[in-house]
Amino acid sequence: MKERIRFYLQAYFGFSRLEIQGFALLVTALALLVASYMAVWLMRFQPTISNNPRALNDMVAHLVIENKTPTWKNDAYKSEFSPNKKAWVTEKITKMPFNPNEASVADLQAHGMPPWLAQRIDNYRHKGGVFRKPEDLQKIYGFPPALYQALSPFIMLPQQALQQPAKKNTPALHVIDLNTADTTALMSLKGIGSKRSMRIVKYREWLGGFHSLEQLYEIYGLDSSIVSDLKKQLRLPAHPQVKLIHLNECTIDELKHPYLKPYLARAIINYRNAHGAFSNVQELLNIKSLDTDTFNRLIPYLAL
């Protein structure tokens, strides 16, 4: 038998006598390794196998489960926070009030949230997101329903106070001028922190001043509810002073404006060079790439 195997190995694979010996040793070593591995598992399950006919099946199931690779990184959390384990979740959370708009990642984890969920909430806040009512937490992708149900009694948001009936003798809101307020004054307004106040000031400088409170909707991170509150606390004069773009004198750099994309700025300069000075602002509509909506937004900032 050995000679026949050796003959086939030499005939089909071109093995030398020394390579055949090495191959035989390798096969023997692999066989011993597999046998020893199975022996260890048999020893672990031997007491059960001898007394329970189903033990062998249990052993195989154990092997399959132990070596299973999760297909989703949050499989463990899906299992932990499944609806039928609400009681377990309730025992794990910290039963203390917290504000999801202010709690740190560590605080969120301390209240029972897994690290990936706490970080996802923090990322949402850094992008300008705000939780206005407890139910908003469920908008976070992957937030386990059982965990939310367990935490909801402890979610405390300052905005909830707005839902209470107004008390008598409520002091009037502090109203400031949108075009002259600095970041400190803006931070005194409800719903405005340091980041939002800086965004308002930077956008005001880019615009050349606000001509309408409606322009607040154009600022990143200010949703409709915040703008609605701000419009009660901000004012503009009847004829706001804004920085004007003089069409017959401006350079390409002076046409940098949030309503003017670079290609539109170049089109205006090219049109002026080709046709001479503008006789009126309406002449801009002769530029085909300038749509009516953009023109109407620009009018308060245009002059000849």
Summarize the structure.
The protein has four domains: 2-66; 75-162, DNA polymerase, domain 1; 176-235, DNA polymerase, domain 1 (Orthogonal Bundle); 245-303, Orthogonal Bundle (DNA polymerase, domain 1), CATH 1.10.150.
Q: How would you describe this structure in keywords?
A:
single chain, 304 residues, mainly alpha, DNA polymerase, domain 1, 4 domains, two-stranded parallel sheet, two-stranded parallel ribbon, 13 helices, 48% helix
Write a structural description.
- The protein has helices spanning 2-13, 17-51, 55-66, 75-80, 86-92, 105-110, 115-126, 145-151, 183-187, 194-207, 224-233, 262-275, 292-298, and strands spanning 176-177, 234-235, 245-246, 302-303.
- The model is unreliable at 60-86 and 161-166 (pLDDT under 50).
- By secondary structure, it is an all-alpha fold.
- It is built from 13 helices and 4 strands.
Tally of extended strands?
Answer: 4
Helicity, as a percent range:
40-55%
- Tally of helical runs: 13
For the biggest β-sheet, the strand order reads 1-2
Order of helices and strands: HHHHHHHHEHHHEEHHE
Kindly report the CATH topology of the largest domain.
DNA polymerase, domain 1
The gross shape turns out to be elongated
Spans of 5+ residues with little confidence (pLDDT < 50)? 60-86, 161-166
**What is the CATH architecture term of the largest domain?**
Orthogonal Bundle
Indicate the structural class: mainly alpha
Mean pLDDT: 77
Terminal CA distance reads 104 Å
Task: Give the class-level CATH name of the largest domain.
Answer: Mainly Alpha
- Identify the CATH homologous superfamily of the largest domain: Photosystem II 12 kDa extrinsic protein
